[in-house]
Amino acid sequence: MTANYQKKEAATRLAYAYAVVSQAVKMSEIDNGPMEDWIDEVEGDTGETNTDETKTFVDTYVTPYLKVVKQEQMRTSGMPYEYFRRENGKLVSGGGHTHYSIALTNGIYLHFNADYTQEDSISLRIDTNGEKKPNIVGRDTFFANFNSKGFYMNGSGNSRETLLKYCKGDGSDACGALIQLDGWEIKDDYPW
After folding, report:
1. Tell me: the pLDDT tens digits for 30-89?
2. How confident is the model over 97-108, as pLDDT tens digits?
């Protein structure tokens, strides 16, 4: 596959995942009230409590509103497979912190974690092509969040210049917000 095709596919699948999860949140709010009320239930504990909170949140507020083919709960901070991010210009293992994963019918994986560093927050890692490689943040893996502000891509609200700087550096968790800001396209200056 050419790089241009890979970029278009990643951006298209990210836009789809974001739209589907956003729509699920809207439908869930009709049934369950405003998201800020359900996110208040997330304590941000560690260990099994964190895993249980994540599973409860996803099963109650997200999964019923998506077409899901697979659900997987992990009781450790491990991942169903390894992914990588940039640090100091090099690719390094992305580590853990996924406690509950679901696979959509089109192969997109959504990996959730009740953020133990912050109460009232669930982080979401969107893997646009599932277990297929490269599993690199900013290439086929992107981060979003559920919290009292709503559902949004990590880094949203920053300027394009700031997002590009983050995406090129160690803040690659903000690459999805850059793609979103650019109209769900990967521009020529994007660090592919």
Report:
1. 999 998 888 777 665 554 457 778 888 899 999 999 999 888 776 555 566 677 777 767
2. 667 889 999 999
CA 81, chain centre distance (Å): 15
Q: CA-CA distance, 27 to 31, in Å (whole number)? A: 7
The pTM for the full model equals 0.89
Q: How far apart are CA 120 and CA 40, in angstroms?
A: 5
DSSP 52-114: HHHHHHHHHHTGGGS-EEEEEE-SSS--SS--EEEETTEEEE------EEEEETTS-EEEEEE
Give the residue extent of every domain in the chain.
Answer: 3-82+93-150
150-153 and 141-147 as β-strands: parallel, antiparallel, unpaired?
antiparallel
